[in-house]
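Please, structure for the following, as tokens.
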Amino acid sequence: MQNVEGSICLVDDDLGFREALTEQLYSLGFVITSYGSAAEYLSARTDAAVSCLILDLHLPDINGLELQRQLASGEAPQIVFISGRGDIPSSVRAMKAGAVEFLTKPIDEDALLKAIHAALAKFRRQKRHRDIFLSLKQRFDSLTPREKEVFPLIIGGALNKQAAAALGIQEVTIQVHRSQIMRKMEAASFADLVRMGVKLGISPTRLSPTLQSR
């Protein structure tokens, strides 16, 4: 049975090693593709299809660290580096840039499987966080321009009359905006709305002492 939690891609210029590892991982139920160079991988790459990238440090076209840098944005796969020789400076750079593991050949099967499962778990966590953020952003984008002005005032703790004074509008209008914001954002409570603001990176608006006293 194939592993449905995420697929693997192997990029290594050693054909014999690539074929052996591909067969081994396939026999363990993983969905796996393999390529002999970074260019081959990039030309066939689809982010949604690969959760873990097993990447040789030394490739015939570009260095594995450079490929890691190119993949650093978006929904990129989690990287497990492999190398035919110990290279402490490169392993340090790879790990600092977010690699899950750095293994040297010959590859220990248990260590590789542990690294793969760690990579798949990390990919799932990050994808879940991205999905939550995108859902919140879609809700926030559905707000009217005025509601987007009211939002930081609400999460900043402003009362309706204080927010109304700050924006120069009627208190009843603020009440309507607050209700619409809670509904559109699908917030269960004020605390829930504040947490949404934090996740969206929206800074709460703190009113001046003069407005706070109103």
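Residues 142-212 form a domain with the Arc Repressor Mutant, subunit A fold (CATH 1.10.10.10). The chain has a mean pLDDT of 90.
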